[in-house]
Specification:
The chain has 344 residues and is of the alpha/beta class. Helices cover 42% and strands 15% of the residues. Strands 3-6-9-1-10 form a five-stranded parallel beta sheet. A two-stranded parallel sheet has the order 2-11. It has a two-stranded antiparallel ribbon with strand order 4-5. A hairpin with a 2-residue loop joins strand 7 and strand 8. The protein starts with 6 loop residues before the first helix and ends in a 29-residue tail after the last helix.
Length: 344
């Protein structure tokens, strides 16, 4: 297990995150919470689904995150005529070698941007299932590993819009979190006019981190301590979705794992070596809501999945923190160590 014994190394890694965050926030004005969630998902080895109406910066957020890191980036424009082989790749007969040669698809990149993912058919969307979960692609019986780090950042328009398909449940469950960018404030929109009025800031955006820096960060996040009480709290939240009367489909065990990983990444972003119930609470809506299916009666009553998760958060008891202090890494560490956090 990765620990935090190397303090100088940890300081260097936190500086990397700060550079990436500043770079993305220079393009996406007035949305620091959205940028933070994007970085949380990246460090938690997850995939991000950005859902909102056209024109609020969904694709720009994905591109800004990708360009801020010096790694391979591919963009896929999902359309109704897109084929699964366009994503995963295809084996082509080589006349000279008299053998099949594999031509990798767009999924073979470290950061894959799937633009308007719900404009493609469910058959094409399913081409992402294996790569997102197992980080590999199987073509004609041959398995190909995907590079590390690997992250899918997909954008989608609301399903009520013309020409869109609802994402299958299995597809939604593989996204660690869903975020809505939302409309900017008046001040942020005025600032946007000044910055974007002449030219796009994406054109001048330069990488501020390398792929191997992100890999080190991911390894550090894996070493964040999570107490038994915090793990049980996450399980209680997810279990409550499976018995809620307003839901006909609750969250899966994969959702519990994603919630725990995201909480660890959030703790690291806050400069802590240990996760708190606050980390779980702050991420519960983003991690759980898009996986839930309300009942027909709940939809008639205009009850959303986000409202149900908020209700579960209010009803589920939060574990109390013990008073003793200590270092929150390794076996026998107290539930919530009392240690001044390092700012990130």
């Amino acid at each position: 297990m990765t620990t935090y014994d190397d303090r100088s190394s940890l300081t260097d890694l936190t500086a990397v995150v700060e550079r990436v965050r500043s770079s993305v926030e220079g393009v996406i004005e007035g949305k620091p919470e959205v940028v933070r969630l994007s970085l949380t998902v990246l460090l938690a080895e997850g995939h991000l689904l950005i859902e909102d109406v056209p024109g609020v910066g969904k694709t720009m957020l994905a591109k800004a995150l990708a360009r801020s890191i010096d790694c391979s980036v591919r963009r896929i424009q999902f359309t109704p005529d897109l084929l699964p082989s366009d994503i995963t790749g295809v084996s082509i007969w080589d006349q000279q070698r008299r053998d099949f040669e594999f031509k990798p698809g767009a999924i073979f990149a470290q950061i894959v941007i799937g633009d308007e993912i719900n404009r493609a058919s469910p058959k094409t969307q399913s081409a992402l299932l294996e790569s997102m979960e197992e980080r590999q692609v199987t073509i004609d019986g041959q398995t190909y590993e995907l590079p590390s780090p690997f992250m899918v950042v997909a954008t989608q328009n609301p399903v009520e819009m013309e020409g869109t398909y609802p994402l299958p449940e299995a597809q939604r469950d593989r996204f660690m979190a869903r975020v809505s960018v939302g409309y900017p404030s008046v001040e942020a929109e005025l600032q946007m006019l000044d910055i974007h009025g002449g030219a796009s800031p994406l054109e001048d955006l330069q990488p501020v981190a390398h792929a191997h820096d992100i890999v080190k960060l991911i390894e550090a996040v894996r070493g964040v301590h999570v107490a038994e009480t915090v793990r049980r709290y996450a399980v209680d939240l997810v279990s409550a979705t499976r018995t809620h009367p307003d839901l006909r489909l609750g969250a899966s065990p994969r959702a519990t794992l994603h919630l725990l990983r995201a909480a660890k990444a959030s703790a690291a972003l806050s400069g802590r070596e240990f996760a708190l119930p606050d980390d779980v609470q702050a991420l519960a809506v983003a991690v759980l809501a898009h996986r839930l299916l309300p009942t027909a009666q709940a939809q008639l009553n205009r009850r959303t999945s986000e409202q149900v998760v908020q209700e579960i958060l209010q009803r589920t008891p939060v574990p109390a923190a013990p008073q003793q202090g200590g270092l929150g890494i390794g076996r026998g560490a107290p539930a919530y160590p009392q240690q001044p956090p390092r700012s990130l």
